[in-house]
């Protein structure tokens, strides 16, 4: 049993991973809408609301939440009715099985069209997840050297597809040749940096294009990062307009710039200020799990889990997140209701995976990268 399970944040992670394990499909995937099919508990039903097919994306987040807890294909930690190792092996296998001849990880219809409305975005998430897994897995009896090599090769092919899809002098959009935006571009940056961490020689020009895009989307007055040069303010999901705005993009972009450039910039300084002025809050209209996670990750690198800014943020993040985590000893135990700003897209699997990732950052299970920006 991992030592981190002994404290409050660790129990939160364990319960979240247990919920994910109990709702993983037999093929190794998680679905935005169909996750209840795998649950053996009577009465476990997915919401009636129709969600988009982003199964590759939520499966990628769920996989990262498992391996970032220090678990791997050999892990015998019991998560309900299965071991963590089995969950991880099946998730990796399913993602690799979706890889197309051009390297892109995407599911296709019979007419060879993507089932996803955001195929480039999902390929970037899958690339990030596969490299994150490959970088942390040590081969053993349950996951051989040959299987790890297949994982690395699959991740590299997905990376090559991602590089080919990057807009020249900019980043990525949700679909091939779509205009770039800072959200998808930041996940592209995360994928490239995970590849670089794994020893891949990522072309410098592709990283430079990312920072060029960030420059184009940085406000010249307060240095916050916008979604696109023509959209520097609030970004909405149709139906969720009442939710309040947070500077998630500033935190995510600042984090990526620190790792690409190795120094602080105006964007990083702006993110410092914007995040510390906007702590996680109990107001339902301020609920944004993605912001909580990415701002936590940004502050991990800036503060290295030390200082008054980190203390104030991490205490608020843990308090608000754990308060919302489902406590009843039923099939809901450990999950988060999909009631934040972005859950109309990712659903309960997204909410629960992001919740686990946040706690892993707080505890230091996901390592903070060394930064020259201090």
How are the strands of the largest sheet arranged? 1-2
CATH topology descriptor: Glycosyltransferase
CATH-scheme architecture = Alpha/alpha barrel
Q: State the low-pLDDT regions, or none.
A: 370-374
Q: What is the alpha-carbon Rg in Å?
A: 19 Å
Shape: globular
Strand/helix succession = HHEEHHHHHHHHHH
Mean pLDDT, to the nearest integer, reads 93
Structural class: mainly alpha
Described by strand count, sense and barrel closure, the largest sheet is: 2 strands, antiparallel
Helix content range of the residues, please?
40-55%
From the N-terminal CA to the C-terminal CA, the straight-line distance is 36 Å
Number of strands: 2
Top CATH class: Mainly Alpha
How many domain units?
1
* Count of separate DSSP helical elements: 12
Strand residues, percent: under 5%
Spell out the key features of this protein.
374 residues, mainly alpha, Glycosyltransferase, two-stranded antiparallel sheet, 2 strands, 50% helix, globular
Tell me about this structure.
This protein has helices spanning 8-22, 55-67, 84-97, 119-136, 145-165, 182-197, 204-216, 248-261, 266-276, 289-303, 308-324, 343-363; strands at residues 78-79, 82-83. It is an all-alpha fold. It has a single domain (3-363), classed as Glycosyltransferase, CATH 1.50.10. Strands 1-2 form a two-stranded antiparallel sheet. The longest helix has 21 residues, at 145-165. It is globular, with a radius of gyration of 19 Å.
């Amino acid at each position: 049993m991992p030592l981190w399970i002994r404290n409050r944040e660790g129990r939160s992670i364990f319960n979240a991973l247990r919920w994910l394990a109990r709702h993983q499909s037999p093929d190794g995937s998680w679905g935005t809408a169909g996750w209840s099919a795998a649950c053996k508990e009577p009465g476990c039903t997915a919401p009636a609301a129709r969600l988009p097919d982003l199964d590759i994306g939520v499966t990628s987040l769920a996989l990262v939440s498992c391996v970032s807890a220090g678990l791997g294909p050999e892990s015998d930690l019991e998560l309900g009715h299965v071991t963590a190792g089995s969950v991880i092996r099946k998730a990796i296998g399913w993602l690799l099985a979706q890889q197309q001849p051009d390297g892109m990880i995407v599911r296709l219809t019979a007419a060879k069209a993507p089932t996803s409305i955001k195929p480039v975005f999902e390929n970037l998430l899958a690339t990030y997840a596969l490299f994150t897994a490959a970088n942390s897995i040590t081969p053993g009896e349950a996951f051989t050297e040959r299987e790890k090599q297949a994982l690395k090769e699959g991740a590299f092919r997905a990376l090559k597809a991602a590089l080919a899809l990057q807009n020249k002098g900019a980043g990525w959009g949700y679909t091939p040749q779509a205009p770039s935006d800072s959200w998808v571009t930041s996940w592209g940056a995360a994928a490239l940096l995970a590849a670089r961490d794994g020893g891949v020689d990522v072309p410098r020009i592709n990283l430079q294009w990312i920072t060029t895009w960030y420059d184009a989307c940085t406000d010249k007055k307060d240095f916050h990062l916008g979604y696109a040069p023509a959209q520097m303010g609030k970004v909405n999901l149709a139906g969720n307009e009442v939710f309040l705005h947070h500077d998630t993009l500033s935190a995510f972009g600042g984090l990526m710039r620190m790792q690409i450039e190795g120094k602080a910039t105006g964007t990083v300084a702006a993110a410092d200020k914007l995040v510390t002025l906007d702590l996680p809050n109990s107001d339902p209209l301020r609920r944004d799990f993605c912001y909580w996670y990415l701002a936590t990750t940004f502050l991990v690198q800036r503060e290295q889990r030390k200082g008054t800014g980190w203390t104030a943020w991490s205490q608020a993040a843990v308090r608000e997140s754990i308060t919302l985590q489902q406590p009843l000893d039923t099939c809901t135990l450990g999950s988060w209701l999909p009631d934040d700003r972005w859950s109309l897209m990712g659903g309960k699997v997204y909410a629960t995976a992001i919740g686990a990732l946040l706690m892993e950052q707080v505890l230091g299970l996901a390592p903070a990268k060394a930064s020259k920006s201090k």
